Amino acid sequence: MKPRLLLLTTLLALSTSAALGQDGLEGVDWENVDPSGQTVTFWHQHTQQRETALQEIVRKFNETNEYGITVIAEYQGGYNDIFQKMLALLGTTDTPNIVVAYQNQAATYQLVDGLVDMNPLVESERWGLSDEDIADFFPGFWSSDVFPSFDNKRLAIAPNRSMEMLYYNIDWLAELRAAGHIDFDGPPTTPDQFRQAACAATQHPFSRATAQGASMGYELAPDASRFASWTFAFGGDVFDYENNRFTYHSDAAVAALEFLQGLFAEGCAALTTENFGDQTNFGAGRTLFTVGSSSGLPFYASAVAEGAQHQWSVAAIPHITPEPVMNVYGASVSLPAGHSAEETLAAWLFLKYYTGTEAQAEWAAASQYFPVRQSVAAGLGPVFEEIPGYETAFNLLPYGVAEPPVPGYDFVRDVVTAAMVDIVTNPNLDVRAALTEANEEANDILEDQFAQMR
Question: Which of 197, 304, 348, 393 matches a 20 to 30 Å C-alpha distance to 206?
Fold first, then answer.
């Protein structure tokens, strides 16, 4: 058994005895539960202005809720930090009452019944959401946290979403076009245009770059979401939902990675050398293109303001499909098992507030995440005007697809990222063979996770 597989299996085994049967909430008469006076802990990953905005939402809830509920929001590191902490605590009273979790992380927790099914709370006549409230959520966002693999339980609810985008330097592209180095206007819409501009930028630096060093067409931050986004753009997927198998060796995935491998071989692309280095170099005018989350919009704005102060925006990742195919994702918030009905209800009431219209309007404006409610989106005019690229990204939401919400995907991501780095840094590596090997390991991990349910 591979080390990462052994680690997960061991953690789940240690958790199982504590988690199974500890929910204790099946059959609870929620209409008669009293949440008064409960203290709720919320583990999150937000920093800087987003943490400030979240704390303000928490403060308002604490001051205005009629039950005297107190929410304590605690930063616990990044997504993976929280995931690792949760694996060791599943089903015990040491878990938080609320935890941020991607769908695949929630699925992993639920292998040992580590989360509360929210369906009874959503449907509660006294505490739940009305039909009008539910209809106000974007349908795809609302349905993304219902898990067919776990009897259609609702294991989370979405407070926000974001999307993989192409970030591009408007002024640099204009310079390349004016000099005849590229033959199209605006951002590239096809892989061929992307290659043309990336290679031209490598040979013709931006005139207003504020940092020394070679210019680069595309700087890649290797990541499984980048892999999925490029595969979507080449008309494929990374998962076969009918057969419940990863498909990292599909023709589309191979074509996407051969395209990236070629860019690197031509010297038109490079790997990032430090966290957010692509963002910094983009701001300084050294990198023409990056691909990253729309949640990075405010950070890119800061990088540009502190750097070359060029015009910039976002666009769909260049694609071969008739319409763009956008990778939409985002962590949701879950209710860990192992707590009393009173605590769980109190936590749910905060989530109801957090995903409500008023809090969502505040959260979208402050965080630059996409809101989950349509009624909020209708009033985003000021945000569209204030934040470069936000409206462009928002208008691409109808083209969104998702990465697989399956248990063990965190470990699969490590495998895929490593394969991606191997491929782009070795021009002689057989892409199909490398992806076939990575795909076999990914499916081994997936099979191991589902074996926990048998």
Answer: 393
The position carrying tokens 């929410």 is: 71
User: CA-CA distance, 345 to 294, in Å (whole number)?
Assistant: 33
pTM assigned to the model: 0.84
Handedness of CA 180, 186, 189, 191 (dihedral sign): positive
**Residue partners of 209: CB distance under 8 A and separation at least 6:** 215, 284, 285, 286, 308
Q: Could you tell me the two tokens for 24?
A: 């204790």
275: Cβ–Cβ under 8 A, 6 or more apart, which residues? Answer: none
Contacts of 84 (CB under 8 A, 6+ apart): none
pLDDT tens per residue, range 309-321: 999 999 999 999 9
Q: Which long-range contacts (CB under 8 A, 24 or more apart) does 151-154 make?
A: 152/119, 153/110, 153/117, 153/118, 153/119, 154/117, 154/118, 154/119, 154/122
Per-residue confidence (pLDDT) for residue 149, from 0 to 100: 83
Give me the domains of the chain, ranges plus CATH numbers.
Answer: 3-156+331-391 (3.40.190.10), 163-328+407-451 (3.40.190.10)
pLDDT confidence of residue 18: 43
Query: Could you identify the residue written with the tokens 């909430």?
Result: 25
Judge residue 241's burial from the number of C-beta atoms within 10 Å of its C-beta, 0-12 exposed, 13-18 middle, 19 or more buried. exposed
Find, among 162, 328, 326, 314, the residue nearest to 233 by Cα.
Answer: 326
| Under 8 Å between Cβ of 253 and 260 | no
User: Are residues 36 and 67 in contact, defined by beta-carbon separation less than 8 angstroms?
Assistant: yes
**What residues in the chain have per-residue pLDDT under 70?**
1-23, 452-454
Closest residue by Cα to residue 248 from 34, 17, 107, 437: 437
